[in-house]
Amino acid sequence: MDKPAQHNDTIDRIASGRTAVCGIGISNLPLIDFLLGLGAKVTARDKKERGQLGGCADLLESRGVRLVLGERYLEGLDENVIFRTPGMRPDSPDLRAAAARGALVTSEMELFMELTPARVIGITGSDGKTTTTTLTYKMLDLQCQRSGRGRAYVGGNIGAPLLPRVGVMRPGDFAVVELSSFQLMSMRVSPERAVITNITPNHLDWHRSMEEYAAAKLNICSHEKCRQLVVNANNEITRKIGRGSPLEVTFFSSTKKSYDEVVPAGKNNAAALFERDGMIVRCNGENEEELLRVSDIILPGRHNIENYMAAMSIVCGIVSHDIFTEVAKTFRGVEHRLEFVREFCGVRYYNSSIDSSPTRTAAALSALPEKPVVICGGYDKKIPLYPLAASLVERAAAVVLTGATAGKIKAALDECSGYDPRALPTIIEPDFEAAVWRARELARPGGIVLLSPACASFDRFKNFEERGNFFKSIVNGF
To answer: What distance in Å separates the CA atoms of residue 311 and residue 181, rounded to the nearest whole number?
Structure first.
């Protein structure tokens, strides 16, 4: 691990005092390594008991880390610098009390963005941020390879933690980071360039209101370092954000066909990306340039056209247009996002476990060539499920409901105009594996089975990756 080339106030406080890391998870272990490399006195705090941590507890203690474990893990939170894990609300009583005593409450990603000399591109949104982040990284990585100048990194919610690599980054490099509302809510630094793919109801089990959730997303571009913002013109909230932003703004839309349709009236000095005659076009209000032929994109679905628009918007002026085409013709998507698993007995199986909201499931359904048997349900994020019901009525051949939200989704279907259980067979199967087998029974040769839960995975699985991998293991075991 390389130490950062320059110090800042946070580094000085870490080196001269005591530091707490709240949460001993896989993502925080590299942070602890980084802090120890700075000579910090580290206390690792976690709600888990020692037995739940396995050998990790012994290893940390052997390296001089003090452990505070169990239900009262935040008692005596008196360190000078406190790193909160993204899942902890920044306004929790313990963190607020620590801040009132003069402690600095920060996060791994915030420290990375303070320290890195690389140009940071931040991407957030309710849907599409993982694909957009991956596309942006691939475009920049290919440009750096072609030019022989700089290097591209990817991290945040995806990939390996970036903080341990900050010491090898240079001013000509790029760091593409996917940022969640949990990370952004308390962020005091913004990336140089920011993308908000869209904002729809999500994570309302954690956020206290839709307004708080949207404000957290907006925080990606609220601080002085940010110079450029890309927003979705088709989403009411992001369109409003773009209209009121003082930054250089690019609006994108996959349904509108001209600059005047895409850019809100009265908004000056903005750019637009839109589709016309099978081409993705960029216009700055005066000049137009064709960026990419839509038919070159091998990812299915209009939502993926929007993901390309978002990625191209944020790297315009950095990446040459031929790279857009090369990526479009070769990129086959992110694992667990409309991922083809196999064809069995004439039925195609797709894993879209990453779909953790109704809008993601609606996008997945619209991308398929025919109505599938859909497996839905999971952890309850307290978000409205009527939009999911409407999408299922319109685009599903049958539905198998599982997990904690199965009953709520069925209730939303029962209240949905046009729902007829004879036309849309609906089965509730609490056990996930049994639900997959029921979907197999409902599918017909030539048809599709789609895992698109529209809910988070935490009622049964650690994350959506574990859920998707379990689905694939079941399907591959038929």
So the answer is: 20
DSSP 234-263: TSHHHHHHHHH-SSEEEEEESS--SHHHHS
Q: What is the mean pLDDT of residues 37-42?
A: 92
* Nearby residues of 78 by Cβ (< 8 Å), 6 or more positions away: 18, 98, 101, 103
The residue type of 118 is A
CATH (one of 3.40.50.720, 3.30.460.80, 3.40.1010.20, 3.90.226.10) for 9-106: 3.40.50.720
Give the global pTM. 0.87
CATH number of 339-476: 3.90.190.20
Q: Using one digit for the tens of pLDDT, what is the confidence trace for 238-291?
A: 999 999 999 999 999 999 999 999 999 989 889 999 999 999 999 999 999 999
Could you count the other beta carbons within 10 Å of the beta carbon of residue 291?
Answer: 19
155 touches 175 (CB < 8 A): yes
| 111-330 has CATH 3.40.1190.20 classification | no
Using DSSP's 3-state secondary structure scheme, residue 376 falls into: strand
Residues 6+ apart with CB under 8 A from 406: 377, 428, 429, 430
